[in-house]
Amino acid sequence: MTVEQTAAQTKEQTFAHTQEQALVVPDYDCAFLDKTLMDELRLYHHPVGVTLLFSDAEVDAFKQAHPDYCLPARPMTFCQWEVAARMQGKTVIGTVDKLFCTNAQVSFGWRDIDDNEVKSQLKYCRSEAQARRFLESKPRMERDAIRAVAVSPLASCTTLPHVVHMLTDSMQAYHLAVDYMAAMDIHPLPTQILMSSSSCGGTVACWKSGLMNYTTPCSGSYNSGKMERGDANVLIPGRQIRAVVARLMERIAAKGSSAVTRPGDFFPGADICKNCPLIHFKKGESSCPDCTKLS
């Protein structure tokens, strides 16, 4: 277990012990988690389960558990693997030879940071020195620690994935963050925005930190990851997603709906100001009897 994972596990145990009343977390299966999140938060895409496969044995076991898996026909980006999962419902197993994006190769520990990688980041930075420093600060897997990365709709996961990655609008992200903070008993919730690698690096950061992250798209995921709708990334550690959904279900039972913005209404709730009866306008008087212009 890495230092980051040990720290995350300690945090998780601390959250559980600081609750005034224990949150009951049923053993939801992944299909229920997927359907609940899709239905109650009106997600546009399926949540994506990202599973890191650390050995050939784990790759083989994953293939046996997901016999309908697909392989990329040619090298492409990690963002594009996820497109197949969230939009088409496909389970994809990707390896370094099928990963075109060097940013993602660095994130997953399949490539070292070299001069070419630094040059690829110069559009973001003021100098090569800054680009290198920013790259070296990016969360990434240990070199060659994983053999493959699998992505699939959460509903298709036979076990909890390492990370659940959702594309949301800002209010969906807000609701997920509210339920996460309540379930995990943490506030405020820190977020991490990366210069690049929002999906691949964001996945690694989420898994290593053991915390939910809410972040923007990066330039690569905006284009190749089909995020032109202005979606945001919400990434939640897989071992915590049941607790988040349990808190969502607890709110629904108590308030009648999933909307925090207007409890009792279905998400997202009526878009009406609380003092709307006081917001009233009437037509103004004419400046003179024969004039149609308002004064």
Q: How would you describe what is shown here?
A:
By secondary structure, this protein is α+β, with helices and mostly antiparallel strands. It is built from eleven helices and six strands. The chain has one domain. It has a six-stranded antiparallel β-sheet. Helix 8 packs across helix 11.
The termini sit apart by: 73 Å
Q: What is the element string, with H for helices and E for strands? A: HHEHHEHHHEEHHEHEH
Shape field: globular
Average pLDDT works out at 88
Binned, the helix content reads 25-40%
Unreliable sequence segments: none
Lateral strand order in the biggest sheet? 2-3-1-4-6-5
Largest sheet: 6 strands, antiparallel
Give the number of DSSP strands. 6
Total number of helices: 11
Kindly estimate the percentage of residues that lie in beta strands according to DSSP.
5-15%
What is the SS-derived class?
alpha+beta
Domain count: the total is: 1
| Rg | 23 Å
